[in-house]
């Protein structure tokens, strides 16, 4: 039996037996030939010790080519990042400022969004200040109404008090103008005893 140890995920040939070398524990019995694709020394040593014919196929090394940075693009990004920094710092200090020069797409969009936020905040502050003024006006109106109520209470005398005062006036007895109802009742009772 022939086995092929590889980490490939597709491109398998029909009729051949494949194993993943990452899951290798020990050599399988009865294997005569093994092909190992890649660097898997544990697999190679185990099958050579078991007497199987082992061949190793080197995997081509993958190389990633990275081009040098586009300095113009890099400068544009650095400039836009600096603009974003100025916008964010000025917003945090509650004095939104537009940086000088050309804003990049992201910085321009950020500035527009924060400008709208500032306009909303200013509108809410004006609305709040208007509501505070309404509260102050209502408090003053309440105080004025309470004064009027007290004045009306004083002016609207109790009919019983008026009758007691009339009885004392008829008898020629003097009394205090702000005498309590009880005091007036006592004076009228004293009149009846006389």
Question: H/E series, N to C?
Answer: EEEHEHHHH
Largest sheet: 4 strands, parallel
Uncertain ranges: none
Number of helices: 5
Describe the structure.
Keywords: Coiled coil. The protein is built from five helices and four strands. With 194 residues, the chain is α/β, with parallel strands linked by helices. The protein folds into three domains: 56 residues, no CATH class; 83 residues; 37 residues. Strand 3, helix 1 and strand 4 form a beta-alpha-beta unit. Helix 2 runs parallel beside helix 3 and helix 4 packs parallel to helix 5. It is elongated. The model has no long low-confidence stretch (mean pLDDT 87).
Describe the secondary structure blueprint for this structure:
Elements: E1 2-5, E2 17-19, E3 33-37, H1 41-49, E4 53-57, H2 71-92, H3 105-155, H4 159-171, H5 181-193
Parallel strand pairs: 1-2, 1-3, 3-4
Helix pairs in contact: 2-3, 4-5
Coiled coil: 121-155
Keywords: Coiled coil
Outline:
The protein has 194 residues and is of the alpha/beta class.
Task: Name a few traits of the molecule.
single chain; 194 residues; alpha/beta; 3 domains; four-stranded parallel beta sheet; 4 strands; 56% helix; coiled coil
């Amino acid at each position: 039996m022939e086995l092929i140890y590889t980490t490939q995920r597709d491109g398998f040939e029909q009729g051949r037996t494949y194993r993943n070398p990452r899951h290798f524990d020990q050599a399988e019995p009865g294997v005569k030939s093994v092909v190992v694709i890649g660097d898997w020394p544990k697999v190679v040593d185990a099958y050579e010790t078991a007497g199987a014919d082992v061949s190793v196929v080197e995997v081509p090394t993958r190389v990633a080519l990275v081009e040098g940075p586009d300095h113009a693009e890099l400068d544009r990004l650095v400039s836009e990042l600096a603009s974003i920094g100025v916008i964010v710092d000025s917003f945090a200090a509650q004095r939104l400022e537009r940086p000088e020069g050309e804003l990049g797409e992201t910085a321009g969009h950020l500035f527009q969004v924060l400008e709208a936020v500032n306009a909303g905040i200013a509108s809410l502050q004006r609305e709040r200040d208007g509501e505070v003024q309404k509260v102050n006006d209502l408090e003053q109106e309440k105080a004025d109404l309470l004064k009027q109520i007290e004045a009306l209470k004083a002016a609207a005398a109790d009919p019983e008090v008026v009758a007691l005062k009339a009885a004392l006036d008829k008898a020629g007895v003097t009394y205090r103008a702000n005498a309590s109802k009880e005091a007036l009742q006592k004076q009228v009772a004293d009149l009846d005893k006389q």
